[in-house]
From TrEMBL:
InterPro entries linked: RclC, RclC-like
Protein source organism: Vibrio mimicus
Name of this chain's protein: DUF417 domain-containing protein
Gene Ontology BP annotations: response to hypochlorite
Record-annotated membrane-spanning stretches: 12-34, 54-81, 88-108, 120-141
Keyword presence, Ion transport: no
């Protein structure tokens, strides 16, 4: 019985750490999107993405970055509020899935996202890390399924 209780607490703690971690990173990066530095850094990602490049026809580089940042902040806060509201957790997790699948797709749509270093094909790890974030929001979605 002790083993089962310990295992249950371990699962609860790992869920808590995962959700808080993803939320903080989304909020932090979302805030950074409001800076000209980050707006310029994400421009090559957005401009080369077939589902996002059109945004620059209507909005400035900074405005697109701000929109992405606001979305990340809202989703990050939603995941935290989701500890009290399963409905908010569920919909925030769906939005998180969209964010992280989009980010991972940059590995395919962005030139030079993959490089050969010492004979080994190496991805842009800043993008690749989102596989773990995707796993966390999928878990949030499963746990709070409506």
């Amino acid at each position: 019985m002790h083993s089962t209780t310990t295992q249950k607490h371990s699962i609860q703690y790992s869920y808590l750490i995962g959700v808080i971690g993803v939320s903080l990173i989304l909020i932090w990066l979302g805030i950074y999107k409001f800076t000209p530095t980050e707006a310029k850094l994400i421009e090559p990602l957005v401009v080369n993405h077939p589902l996002m490049s059109w945004t620059y026809q209507f909005l400035s580089v900074q405005a697109v970055s701000n929109l992405i940042g606001a979305t990340e902040i809202i989703v990050g806060i939603g995941l935290l509020v989701g500890f009290r509201s399963p409905k908010i957790a569920y919909y925030s997790a769906i939005a998180g899935v969209v964010i992280f699948i989009t980010t991972l797709s940059f590995l395919i749509t962005t030139p030079n996202a993959w490089k050969v270093s010492d004979g080994i094909l190496v991805p842009n790890f800043f993008l690749l890390k989102d596989i773990l974030f995707l796993a966390v929001v999928v878990r949030v979605m499963e746990k709070n399924k409506m």
